[in-house]
Amino acid sequence: MTVKILSITLLLLSVCVCCHSSEDTRVRGPGRIRPCCVGVDKDNMTAEVVGETYREQAARGHCVKAIIFNTKKGQLCADPKAQWVKDLTAKMRKE
């Protein structure tokens, strides 16, 4: 009887671990997991931004609240409270 209980417990534990680790995959779809910003750049990086789009990231877990822009080097995590970020996102919304 104890082997049966242990087997069931291990099975339930492995199901919980699998469900928890694939949580982002279910939300975004396979192959679309994006790394999140764990810090933000407060310096004016307007000149580095390419394109006319950005995305907002909410603070969740180890991820911080950020505005994410594209640059030639990859994504740029910017402080949403910085004035240059507010100006640039306002300009992008108008275009």
From TrEMBL:
One cellular component term from this protein's GO annotations in UniProt: extracellular space
Signal sequence, renumbered to the chain: 1-21
Boundaries of every Chemokine interleukin-8-like domain copy: 33-92
SMART domains, alphabetized: SCY (SM00199)
Classification of source organism: Eukaryota, Metazoa, Chordata, Craniata, Vertebrata
GO biological process, one term: immune response
Protein name: Chemokine interleukin-8-like domain-containing protein
Keyword Signal: yes
InterPro entries to which the protein is assigned, alphabetical: Chemokine_b/g/d, Chemokine_IL8-like_dom, Interleukin_8-like_sf
Entries under Gene3D superfamilies matching the protein: 2.40.50.40
Species in which this protein is naturally found: Astatotilapia calliptera (Eastern happy)
UniProt keyword list: Cytokine, Signal
GO molecular function: chemokine activity
Source species, domain of life: Eukaryota
